[in-house]
Amino acid sequence: MRRILIVGAGQSGLQLALGLQGKGYDVTVMSNRTAEEIRSGRVMSTQIMFRTALRYERELGLNFWEGLAPRVEGLGISVAGTVPGVPGVQRLVDWVGRLDGHAQSVDQRVKMAGWLDTFAERGGRLVVHGAAVSDLDFLAHRYDLVLVAAGKGELVSLFARDPARSPYAAPQRSLALAYVHGLGPRAEHPEYDAARCNLVPGVGELWVIPTLTTSGRADILFWEGVPGGPLDVFHDVEGPGAHLARTLELLERFVPWEYGRATAVELTDARATLAGRYAPTVRDPVGRLPSGGLVLGVADAVVVNDPLTGQGSNSAAKCAASYLASIVERGEEPFDADWMRTAFERYWASARHVTRWTNAMLAPQAGHVRSLLGAAGGLQRVADRFANGFDDPSDFEDYFFEAAKAEAYVAEALAAAG
Fold first, then answer.
1. Which of 23, 143, 330, 410 has the fewest CB atoms within 10 Å, counting from its CB?
2. DSSP designation for 185
3. Where is each Styrene monooxygenase StyA putative substrate binding domain found (predicted)?
4. Are 221 and 43 in contact (CB under 8 A)?
């Protein structure tokens, strides 16, 4: 039985651990916290998982909360701006695309704690310890394969930044989120749940995501601010109450249609806020330990995108599924550096589309992108296709990046609409 060590107990690490466990591998997981510490701790992320990522969980029998979490059946885009002669901020663009398969969001405190308990109950070996490079150097020779699925901390230093695939050297957004109860219904299509992304050109974005948290149904209010701009104001906030108050002040100023839904909200719990920032980065997937041992980076450890496009958990799930297939197909052959690079490139074949699209969305909107988003407001076919691109970002290659392709697609959609 092949022995595998996975460092990190997030979406990718635990999904991969549970998948390998189900295939008969001897798996050890290193986590810096117990399940109960995760469950009672601070929120760790925003997340919304689309059809493909949810399918991977379902295939492994890990969709424990599918019947409890809100079924997100649509994804909307709004663009804020001003209109001459009209006071205040207006919605210049507003539409909701219907998803081909529902999306869902589960607070990672709920999911990761539950998965960690499941891994242990199924006989997995759990080591609660904040791993350092020296720990892996000591342990690596005891395992056939060591995977690093921890996207923060000292271990990331094992993987060199790939400048050819990393156009940004600094964070492109400041991030601030709050989980809330009491958000009112959407004015448009309130009969089904939808996630919404509000674009405020030159300023940032606000995501509103229905979710399941430790206290039941909730919504995530998630600001992404251009560094140094008017949304980059959470670094000096003292306490969760002040964080929520600032969140709401910004809603009222920049997206008043969302503020109108939020006048009665309250935090889901005392640890329901988070703020920070990080640079989007792609790294060399093979890390070398001081003694010469090799480790393979997983998901955020080697490909981390800004959360603007909601791809974090989706990418983690896809990476875990891809690595699971590569490991099983390897059989009894050694997990050497060549195999590691091959396994990563197999994942990168899909991940590259996420990175390209997310990096493009971080940049100021090109004219053809503004036109495309505007056209979706009057063409449901375009809105639906754009919304479903969040599940399969490779589709954007056909019409998003080049003006000629975007114009041709909109013309085709107009002709089809009659």
1. 23
2. P
3. 151-261
4. no
Query: Do 30 and 8 meet the contact criterion of CB atoms below 8 Å apart?
Result: yes
Residues 6+ apart with CB under 8 A from 254: 80, 89, 198, 200, 203, 206, 230, 231
pLDDT in tens, 93-109: 999 999 999 999 999 99
User: Diameter of the chain by CA atoms?
Assistant: 72
Query: Which three-class secondary structure state does DSSP give residue 26?
Result: strand
The DSSP letter of residue 161 is B
pLDDT digits over 285-299, tens only? 999 999 999 999 999
The pair of structure tokens assigned to 27 is 């798996």
Task: Tell me the C-alpha distance between 399 and 157, whole Å.
Answer: 37
Q: Calculate helix-pair angle for 337-362, 312-330, nearest 10 degrees.
A: 160
How much is the pTM? 0.97
Residue 143's region, left for phi above 0, alpha for psi from -120 to 50, else beta, is: beta
**Residue 247 near residue 274, CB atoms below 8 Å:** no
Gyration radius from the chain CA atoms: 22
What is the rounded end-to-end Cα distance, in angstroms, of the chain?
62
- Mean pLDDT value of segment 57-62: 98
Q: CA-to-CA distance for 258 and 200, rounded, in angstroms? A: 13
- Cβ burial 219-234 (10 Å sphere, 16+ → b, else e): bbbbbbbbeeeebbbb
